[in-house]
Amino acid sequence: MTTPLTDLARRLPGLRLLTDAGDLEHYGRDWTRRWTPAPLAIALPATIEEVQDIMRWANERHVAIVPSGGRTGLSGGAVAANGELVLSLARMNRVLGFDAVDRTLTVQPGIALEAVHTAAREHGLIYPVDFASRGSCSIGGNIATNAGGIRVIRYGNTREWIAGLKVVAGNGELLELNRGLVKNSSGYDFRHLLIGSEGTLGIVVEATLKLTNPPPSSQVMLLALPDLDALTQVFAAFRAKLSLQAFEFFTDVALKHVLANGAQRAIDGEHPYYVVTEFDAVDEASQERALEVFGHCVEKGWVSDGVVAQSEAQAAALWRLREGITESLVPYKPYKNDVSLRIGEVPAFLRVMPARLAQEYPQLEVVWYGHIGDGNLHINVLKPADMADADFIAQCERATKLLAATLKEHGGSISAEHGIGLVKRPYLESTRSVAEIALMRGVRKVFDPNGILNPGKVFVDA
């Protein structure tokens, strides 16, 4: 009697399969590093047909499948810890076509976001979704989590830029969703159902991406703020007078770590909150308008100090103060959460939540930063050097329970852009009602009748 893996190799003799211990560890986890990888093997298909054949085999053999992209996720969505077959899309990483009339780029799911940016620029256009992991994250993973990033305020999330998808459903059937149409009112749009589904409904095997014109010339400004209330006041003032491309905030604690990691201080003195904002500056009038808004905010006491970048190099240095935070925290093995609130609710939440965490867990340092322009906050709890990993995770899980309860009070979401995965699965009911979760289970059953796609992710399988 052949084993399932031997059977797969016999059926697909050209399929690349990896079983070495190093490969199993590499492909069997994401950035969470909390679970010990234990996949059955790693399959690296090169064609849509191979993906379909793998899914048919998995259904027959009752083998669970974990889809894998760049594995940069922070919620355990790409973890294979229970003998699953990891289906890595790393070999399906090409640009398939460009349509100049529709201004779309068709790509395979394993292509890196940075490569998409490069391909779009070659045609004088941009794919505007962007974030710090652009060099390692994949388009398929971006779609699976509806990734956002630093320019959501201007361009929206991944969802807004997907014109069409090809998806292999849980039963191996190939679905062509929307086919790049601008208008399509012919029933349910399953394209949007698949976006953000974390590989639990189907595997994206091809994506048609919308492109747009490059943004106009811009300026970057760093602002120092005296208190939380100033955050939304400054945001409202800048948005009313300027065309914002980004509006990012971070705390003095975050600044301390990024400066220690090699970034250069741009504003003297100690300030509790900072904002990096980028806005259109196409002419002298728009630049003067920016200075007027800045002066108004200083006059109101909302801004303590600020600096405007005078060159591309200085703009990059200001952006490093925000984009360099994640890298600066890596040595501390941070426990990460990304949450979402209505923009107007952010100050009220920030007045309550840090104080609650400090009261319950005074020994833990917490670093806050995020995208004020879309209400997305990133929370990093840093592991004390003398605390065991297991003890640290246990404390952080209790802290996340407190976080979820507080978010529910403020009408927020436990996940803004990294998905639910394994990490946030216990807290799904803080964001979704029991009725919604029941419907989600029903939808999953339709797309994946045998429950082989990413089992255990998002919610516990019934």
Automatic annotation (TrEMBL):
InterPro entries noted in UniProt: FAD-bd_oxidored_4_C, FAD-bd_PCMH, FAD-bd_PCMH-like_sf, FAD-bd_PCMH_sub1, FAD-bd_PCMH_sub2, FAD-linked_Oxase-like_C, FAD-oxidored/transferase_4, Oxid_FAD_bind_N
Cofactor dependency: FAD
GO biological process: respiratory electron transport chain
The keyword Transmembrane helix belongs to this UniProt entry's keyword annotation: no
Molecular-function annotations in GO: FAD binding; oxidoreductase activity
Pfam families linked: FAD-oxidase_C (PF02913), FAD_binding_4 (PF01565)
Keywords: FAD, Flavoprotein, Oxidoreductase
Keyword Flavoprotein: yes
Ranges of residues in domain FAD-binding PCMH-type: 35-214
PROSITE patterns with a match to the protein in the record: FAD_PCMH
Similarity comment: Belongs to the FAD-binding oxidoreductase/transferase type 4 family.
Record's protein name: FAD/FMN-containing dehydrogenase
Organism: Rhodanobacter glycinis
Origin organism lineage: Bacteria, Pseudomonadati, Pseudomonadota, Gammaproteobacteria, Lysobacterales
